[in-house]
Specification:
five-stranded parallel beta sheet, about 250 residues, about 20% strand, six-stranded mixed beta sheet, 2 domains, 9 helices, Rossmann fold, alpha/beta
């Protein structure tokens, strides 16, 4: 089987230097992008049911730009005035700079790691006296709350947005050689949008152990898995798989 068409369940990259474009050029592939999931904010009414008082907290932990957007949205909807003394702890420098969209950056106490939560955790440990608010999605990794609890950090989990399946009704059928997924929610969306889907010769690629497990749990065949030691990225995993398929096809 020759790989010709790939569907990536993510938004299309904004730059032509994307490794997906390089992959398409290298093997003359058609690579389409379509998000299988989308994020929607929970309403102020729903947030009130969580019985969380934002004003009781002295610091906020942001693990993504999405969390930043929905935190300030919910504050605006609830008419919560965030004090200038609020401290912000961000997963990365880019997330920290994104705060400029909502606050006067140079007048606030902002801390950030390089990209991994372990790095940010080292900074948080130096500010153990703070009362942290942790904005999250309804579906999130337990790793971060567990690390905060283990380190005896005072924090509150606040679900302020949720991941839902996209409406893919405009796609008549999934007639691609490879489907690429990055979250269990993407697999859930596939089943919801295409209940009659039969895998047959379609290859399924999954990024991350949770996504791989979701593929297997859905009784689908997992053909391509990343990250792996020899393929830390999805594009590298796809490259190696296509190369192997081409080699086998020439035998």
């Amino acid at each position: 089987m020759k790989i010709k068409r790939i569907l990536v369940s993510q938004p299309e990259p904004t730059t032509d230097k994307s490794p997906y474009h390089e992959l398409a050029k290298k093997y003359c592939l058609q690579i389409d992008f379509r998000p299988f999931i989308q994020v929607e904010g929970i309403s102020a009414k729903e947030f009130r049911q969580e019985r969380i008082n934002i004003g009781e907290h002295t610091a906020v932990i942001f693990t993504s730009r999405t969390a930043v957007d929905h935190f300030f949205r919910i504050c605006e909807e609830l008419r919560v005035v965030i004090p200038d003394t609020m401290k912000y702890f961000c997963i990365s420098e880019s997330t920290a700079f994104y705060l400029q969209k909502y606050i006067v950056y140079r007048k606030r106490k902002i801390f950030y790691g390089k990209s991994k939560f372990e790095e940010l955790m080292d900074i948080i440990m130096k500010h153990k006296e703070e009362k942290y608010l942790l904005p999250l999605s309804d579906i999130h990794k337990q790793e971060i709350p567990q690390k905060l609890s283990k380190s005896k950090i005072t924090f509150t989990e606040a679900v302020i947005y949720r991941t839902v399946s996209s409406d893919l009704s405009d796609i008549a059928q999934i007639d691609y050689d490879v489907l690429v997924f990055f979250s269990p929610s993407g697999i859930k969306s596939l089943i919801q949008n295409f209940p009659e889907f039969k895998q047959e010769n379609t290859k399924i690629a999954a990024f991350g152990p949770a996504t791989s497990k979701a593929v297997v749990d859905a009784k689908l065949r997992l053909d391509i898995e990343a990250p792996m030691p020899q393929a830390p990225s999805m594009t590298m995993a796809l490259d190696q798989f296509i190369k192997k398929e081409m080699k086998n096809g020439n035998k």
